[in-house]
Each structure stands twice: as structure tokens, then as C-alpha cells.
Design goal:
Helix content: 40-55%
Distance between the termini: 61 Å
CATH topology of the largest domain: Beta-lactamase Inhibitory Protein, Chain:B, domain 1
Number of helices: 4
Shape: rod-shaped
Largest sheet: 5 strands, antiparallel
Length: about 150
């Protein structure tokens, strides 16, 4: 927080000195102004600390944990999403990272909160196919939300 205190305090003091140039402030008024500035800086320190905690929490949620690492996670599949057998490996409550480890990066991703990842494109022998998976809070919502492409029309 100290790295923010000096620039903020300097800015406020600049305004104080500018005010002094325009009008004479009594020592009582100046003391009140300084106390007000101190309160503002303390409030900003608390807000910055809260935002930094929130950012750290978000980073921790987005960073794969050791239980989600590739060593203990799904084994990468050959053919990615274009391989029908890989879709059978997708289960409810898998994380998005686990899905990507099996199917590869989605071709499209829509939504906030409830997210749908899409896998679309040409597949030899099947033409254009499309499949999708519904995620909530970074997890596959359930088997009803796993919609593999139809590879044999």
C-alpha cells in the first residue's frame, strides 16, 4: 500500500498548496483539510487491499490446482473433439480445463456464468459437425449438457 500512498498524498498536497495560493487558510482549516486527506488515503488503502485480495482469490480459482494438473488429470486424446470416443470420456462435474485436455480448445465459447463451449468444423467422412458442452462455475453441468456432434448422419 505504501507505493500508492506517496502519489496520492502528493496529489492532495498539491491541491492544498494551490488552495493556499488562492486564499488564506487558517491553521485550523489547514489541519482539518489534512485530516480529511488522511481519511481519504486510508479509505483508498482499505479499498486497494480489498481489491488485491479479490484479485488473488480470482487468480487462485483460475490457476489449475495440483489435483487438476496434467499428471493427475485426463490423458490428452488423439484427434481431440473430432474423435467420437473422446466425447464419451467427458463426465459431469469435470472442469473446463479437463474438457480441454480431452477435446482440445473449443472453436467458440459463449456466455458468462453459464458458459457453453462449442466444437464445430469439418470432419472427414461426416462433413460439418457441431457439438457443445454446458458449464456452470467452470464445471460440466451434467450429462444432459454434453451434446456430442453426430459423426454418422
Amino acid at each position: 500500500m505504501d507505493r500508492y500512498r506517496l502519489p496520492v498524498m502528493s496529489t492532495f498536497l498539491l491541491f492544498v498548496f494551490a488552495s493556499l495560493a488562492d486564499a488564506q487558510l487558517s491553521s485550523t482549516d489547514l489541519a482539518k483539510e489534512i485530516n480529511t486527506l488522511k481519511e481519504v488515503v486510508q479509505a483508498q488503502d482499505r479499498r486497494i487491499e480489498a481489491l488485491e485480495r479479490e484479485l488473488a482469490d480470482l487468480k487462485a480459482r483460475l490457476t489449475p490446482t495440483s489435483s487438476q494438473s496434467t499428471r493427475s488429470g485426463p490423458i490428452p486424446a488423439q484427434g481431440g473433439w473430432r474423435n467420437p470416443d473422446n466425447w464419451k470420456r467427458i463426465k459431469a462435474n469435470m472442469s473446463e480445463q479437463q474438457v480441454i485436455a480431452i477435446l482440445g480448445r473449443p472453436t467458440r465459447r459463449d456466455g458468462v456464468g453459464r458458459v457453453t463451449v462449442f466444437y464445430e468444423g469439418e470432419v472427414e467422412g461426416a462433413g460439418y459437425v457441431s457439438g457443445n458442452i454446458g458449464l456452470w462455475d467452470n464445471q460440466v453441468m451434467g450429462t444432459a449438457f454434453i451434446n456430442p456432434p453426430v459423426f454418422n448422419p
